[in-house]
Batch of 2 targets.
Target 1
Amino acid sequence: MEPIAGVEDDRLKLALTRSAQGDSLAFAELVREHQGMVFSIAYHFLRDRALAEDLAQEVFLELHQGLDRIQSPAHLTYWLRRVTANRCIDQGRSKQRRRELALDDAPEPVAAEQPADPLLLEKLQQSLAGLPEKQRLMLILRFQEGMGPAEIADVLEIPVNTVKSTLHRSLADLRRGLTRKIREVRYAFF
Amino acid sequence: MHFSEDDLREALKRKDPGPDFTQRVLARVEQAKTKGKPAQSAKKNNGFFAWWQLRPAWTVAVTAVLLLGFGWGGYQYAEYRHQKQEAIMAERHEKELQEAERARDQAILALQIARSKLNHVLQQTQVPAVESDKIRRQRL
């Protein structure tokens, strides 16, 4: 597995060097490689596909303008996560987007406590959208990107202990919110 | 309701922005390049006078500095005037006090002189009349 990772790293290194020299094909390769990450962070944060795509494009535009400052593929990933996170927070502040979808918009409940249940996933996403910005972003970085508390702390420039406690609290809030939602739906249903 | 971390991972799994996303990013980069070029060349040509392009900001800054400067200077000048006036008043008061003291001393001295003269006159007037008659006769 390691040689493949090494080859991948070399490929990205080469693409990075060539992009910095103005090769647009190499830059396209970098975009293709990271577009899922950048777009998904933005999408899960904003819950709006058009806004998320616009934000992701702006992130890559900023990357193109500052390619000479990127030192390695790992640095690139870190930089992209950091810039995306900051832009998400800025976007969230400017739009005051902390919306929660109305229960009427949600699909009808079916069997609730099953793994990978579409209803559960939908409710999870809705509850996540209702969390405060920082909490939401931390959960996205933790569970979408699989980042550890130290990495999240580094990206968001906050203490590791704050990240740990916030993650803990966010999960508790998420559970509470989800239970409330399901209960409300059940009452409405019966 | 319970959910596992895997459920959360599933809910937050990466999404694909669509097949043409890369092309759209590249188009936007090209667009930014073409927009940025004239601005950059203008910046290079006017490097020395580039600050002039920021003249609204400069104007505001300079006006603010001047206003602050004048305000501070005015306040300092008013303070200086006030202190100077107070010093003059204090000096005048001191002089008046000294003059009053001198006048009082002179008045006391004059009163003392007048008293001694009056005493002398009173002593003269209280000499017995007999003695004065004798003296008068002797003179005659």
Note: The first helix of chain A runs from residue 2 to 20.
Target 2
Amino acid sequence: MLLRLLRRVRENLFSTWYNTLLTVLAVWFLWVVLRGLFQWAVADAVWSGGADACQQARQLAQAEGRPWGACWTVIPENLKLLLTGTYPPGELWRIWVCVYVSACVVGVSAGVWRGLMRDVAIALGAAAILLLFLPFSWAERLWICGIACALWVPMGIGWLARSRIPRGVLIGSWLALPALIIWLIGGGGPLLRVESVHWGGLMLTFLVAFVGIVASFPLGVLLALGRQSTLPIVRWFSILYIEIVRGVPLITLIFMASLMLPLFLPGNIRIDQALRAMTAFTLFTAAYIAENVRGGLQAIPRGQIEAAQALGLSSWLTTFFIVLPQALRAVIPANVGQFISLFKDTSLVFVAALLDLFNMGRSILANPTWLGSDREVLLFIAFVYWLFTYTMAYLSRRLERILGVGER
Amino acid sequence: MSTASARIPFWRDVRVLRVSAQLLFVLVIVLIANWFYTNLQINLERTGIRFGFDFLWTTAGFDISEGIPFEPTDSYGYAFWVGVVNTLRVIGIGIVLATLVGLVAGIARLSSNWLVRQIAAVYIETIRNTPLVVQLFFWYTAVLLKLPRVDESIELPGPIYLSQRGLALPRPYATESFPWWGVVLAVGLLAALAVYIGRRISLARAQRPGFPALWAGGVFVLCAVGGWLVLPQAPLAWEIPTLGRFNFEGGWQLSPEFAALLAGLVVYTGAFIAEIVRGGILAVPKGQTEAARALGLRPLQVLRLVVIPQALRVIVPPLTSQYLNLAKNSSLAVAVGYPDLFNVANTIINQSGRAIEMVFLIMATYLTMSLLTSAFMNWYNRRVKLVER
């Protein structure tokens, strides 16, 4: 056993003289980086107390002439802002209900459908468990632990009752979920209205990404079909739209939406900043989705269309029942990649003066109390983004394998 | 057939349907555009803004922190041009460095050394999965602004000085003998050209592959080095930055904003390029290398004549879109306060209130840059493609 390990080590690390040199250099690099990181993030770090504890630790370190460590207390102290922005504290339960209801729906579908959905549920639950290692208070940890339970318990129930749950119920609950979430967050009816200026933090990040994904997909498919159309005017219009949008930075589109959209609408129609940003994200992502879908459309063998025509299907029927299902299936991985970058790009909403996760962090850093905690806050934010994008990327790879794309 | 088509009523005739569908489409587009235009007219009248580009010639009245010389008395149009030049500067340097970083990381990802492979994987996976603007902000506030003060700056070999005020690097400058060296270089270039053509002809006559470009390059380098040594004074000398009263003087100064933007763009785009390079190298089947070796090609020839042409075919198209992404992402300079074209245009809008005109200008500029870059890369792609068959 040990011998085999040693041989593996020699093969992989010390096979030639330059390989050995590379290994030594890499070990030295890791030693320097990891030691510095450990010293800063763990050994010298302040884990509890308010802003005062950090100030004291910093002054002490300065007096002794050594570098000071991280001040992690900035995260739990501002957690509410980072996650939900200035959402009224009395109404926070509504967000928790959103999270728990979504978790339950995902969990039950995971139990019934299994396959990739089960991986999603397990990964999300694992992500929630991972969150426990961050410096949260015990009450918050309990809530987070509840998310994992709300995913995994319904998954078990769904698996046990999979033959008794009708298909329509699950699909219906998926369709009803977005409306329920928007109603719960925005209010209306018996619930207190919460204006979109109070939506912020991670919640806003999710909302913008979600609306962008849902709204851009049909638009993108239409544009792709338009680009492949035999009608010249439709085709040229689609090409023009796609190329212009792809040729300019997203930030200019958000800027345009937030600044110029009101100019192009009648004075009595008022749309708030959040909706303007969502419009920009939708218009932007649609162009990229269109290019992905076009790839899928081009990959469909000509024989499929000819066979459909020979069977007497009209061009509409051919498009919707023969071409699109195959094309969309082939481009799912590419589109997931597009949605991952949409999720990352939501951090650009600062152009529209919105405070999502990243920009909430920026405004916290502008607060004199937390001056100098840039590394801590930014690393936390980066970690949250990484957690979600990496999970999505992992699931996309699984999906690719399940669909067998790229193996043909 | 002809009698059957004669009986088809016009509302089911494909030709009529095609034309009418397009007419309907145009009608809808025109109606929407008209609606937007009328609203715009009403809104502009109400706010009293007039549309036009003549404001570009009025005095800007603000300062730009870096770039080509600019005075607050210069015009808005010139201010915008300063921003364009600053953007081009970041894009140019960024593309070169990102390609190098991507190449190294992509090859490291395929290294036979386990540790090197893992380090490259961690780099690629963390950088690709976090937003660029967070990284830029991190580089700016958490790295560059946290560096020591100017009088305590970190000295790296070079000498390169790192401080809160950014980077100070040595800069080459031309001495008195530089024109003579230029003459030597021109002669060397001609000689190299002659050698290249001569080798091409003799190789073609002998009908075997060789390295005419390598020969020509060698001749040129020989001329350049010879000229450098023969001339009584070195044609180029280094201007070393020295610490003045407030900041470094002389040398090549990079502001912290520029350095943060460049570092962020290079590290981010480099991670994406690394994946492309890896994919390109993996896309060349092992059999190709083995077959080339069996045909008796030397390892260097295998790489140059078999692996690289095929890998480039896979690499170039996605690499183009990464370069375009880098160009577009340079607009995030606004997050760190580097005066690129978007940032300057933003200031102009705040001062003059000409939102529509400036947004139009911004978009037109980026579109031009994107189209030029993709035109160039398409041309290069066609050249690389020709190698295929």
Note: Chain B touches chain A through 52 residues (CB under 8 Å).
